[in-house]
Design goal:
- There is one protein chain.
- The chain has 164 residues and is of the alpha+beta class.
- The chain has a single domain, classed as Immunoglobulin-like (Sandwich).
- Helices cover 34% and strands 32% of the residues.
- It has a 5-stranded antiparallel beta sheet with strand order 1-3-4-7-9, with no helix packed on it. The chain has a 4-stranded mixed beta sheet with strand order 2-8-5-6.
- A hairpin with a 4-residue loop joins strand 3 and strand 4.
- Helix 1 packs across helix 3.
- The model has no long low-confidence stretch (mean pLDDT 84).
Length: 164
C-alpha cells in the first residue's frame, strides 16, 4: 500500500511540475515581447490592438471596420513588416470578407522572422494588379507567416536553447 501512495505522490509531482513548466514558459515568452512601431499612418478603419515582437517572431492583432462611406468588403489588408535596418521582411495580404457596417472584424498576423522592428498596414483594392502582388508575396514570404503563435514544442525548444 505504501508503494501505491508513493507512486501517487510522484505522479502528482510530475504533473504539477509539467503544468508549472508550461506556465513559466508562457510567462517567460510573453515577457520577451516588446512593442513595435507603425511607420505609416493607419487607415481610418483599422485599429491595431497589439503589435509586438521578440527576437524570433512578431504578432500584430487588431480590428478593421467597414462603414457605409468606406465599404471594405472584398478589399485586402496589406500588412508589411520591417527589420531593424528598415528593410522589408515580409508582406501579408488578408482578404476582408463577411464584414457588416460599423461592426469590427478581428485580424491577426503572426510572423516568424528575426529582429522585426516596425510594420505598416494599408488597404488594397481587389483588382488584377493586387492579385499579382498577392501571388508574388505568397511566393516570397509564405514561410515567414504562421497562422498561430509558437506552439508548446517550439516553446520548449526555445527555453532549452536559452538555457544552453
Amino acid at each position: 500500500m505504501d508503494r501505491l501512495q508513493d507512486f501517487t505522490k510522484y505522479a502528482i509531482w510530475v504533473i504539477a511540475l509539467y503544468f508549472f513548466s508550461v506556465f513559466m514558459m508562457y510567462i517567460g515568452l510573453n515577457t520577451t515581447y516588446s512593442n513595435i512601431n507603425n511607420i505609416k499612418e493607419l487607415p481610418e478603419n483599422v485599429v491595431v490592438d497589439l503589435a509586438q515582437a521578440t527576437s524570433v517572431n512578431a504578432r500584430i492583432y487588431g480590428t478593421v471596420t467597414s462603414t457605409e462611406s468606406n465599404n471594405l468588403e472584398g478589399k485586402y489588408l496589406k500588412v508589411s513588416i520591417f527589420n531593424k535596418l528598415g528593410r522589408l521582411a515580409g508582406i501579408k495580404y488578408l482578404k476582408i470578407e463577411g464584414t457588416k457596417f460599423d461592426e469590427p472584424k478581428k485580424f491577426m498576423v503572426n510572423a516568424k522572422d528575426e529582429n522585426i522592428n516596425s510594420y505598416s498596414i494599408e488597404i488594397a483594392e481587389n483588382n488584377e494588379e493586387t492579385e499579382e502582388k498577392i501571388k508574388l508575396a505568397i511566393e516570397l514570404f509564405d514561410k515567414k507567416f504562421t497562422k498561430e503563435e509558437l506552439t508548446i514544442g517550439a516553446l520548449i525548444l526555445l527555453v532549452m536553447y536559452s538555457i544552453v
